[in-house]
Write a structure and sequence with these properties.
Length: about 190
């Protein structure tokens, strides 16, 4: 019996040991998913370099575009001024008349062509007289001369709203002189850009 008493506890211990040894081990926990490490932050100079280059390029492009636009505008203004100087020539009148002379019709055609080429241009037509006659008479005659030039230009297709008239009578002579040549120059209609 002594044997049995000794054997049973030993058998139990062995059985438990075998059971523990044969038992499947529990699955190991899955290793944690690797955490993606963020890429190392570039140095501040690396970040700013591309942005600085593109910003500098954009600023240079904008400046170049502004300069090109300014140059184009200056060229357009120069062309406008040259065209105005070429076209806006005075016309003259016979003594005590406001009829358009044949020789001046070509000048008026050139003025009409200029106004058609530059639709934003507006003109003031100033009628003038020579020194002879009264102030009141010459103011009325200067007005008739300015209106005659205006009517001729509107007949050539220029909008009446682009033309204004004024009379200076004998108050603004173009040349000083008391002879027929001077008087002819002073009997005029002058065209000025508005």
């Amino acid at each position: 019996m002594r044997f049995v008493r000794t054997f049973i506890p030993v058998a139990v211990v062995l059985a438990l040991g075998v059971g523990v040894a044969c038992k499947k081990p529990a699955p190991a926990p899955a290793p944690p998913a690797p955490v993606a490490e963020p890429a190392p932050a570039p140095a501040p100079a690396e970040v700013q370099q591309p942005n600085d280059d593109s910003a500098a390029r954009a600023a240079a492009d904008a400046e170049a575009a502004r300069k090109a636009a300014a140059a184009a505008e200056m060229e357009r203004q120069a062309q406008f001024k040259a065209a105005a100087e070429a076209a806006l020539k005075d016309i003259n009148f016979e003594f005590d008349k406001s009829d358009i002379r044949e020789v001046d019709k070509a000048k008026l055609q050139a003025i009409a062509d200029f106004l058609k080429a530059y639709p934003d241009a507006k003109l003031q037509l100033a009628g003038n007289c020579d020194e002879r006659g009264t102030v009141e008479y010459n103011l009325a005659l200067g007005e008739r001369r300015a209106h005659a030039a205006q009517a001729y230009l509107t007949g050539l297709g220029v909008a009446d709203a682009r033309l204004t008239t004024i009379s200076y009578g004998k108050e603004k002579p173009k040349v000083d002189g008391h002879d027929e040549a001077s008087w002819l120059i002073n009997r005029n209609c002058q065209f000025t850009l508005q």
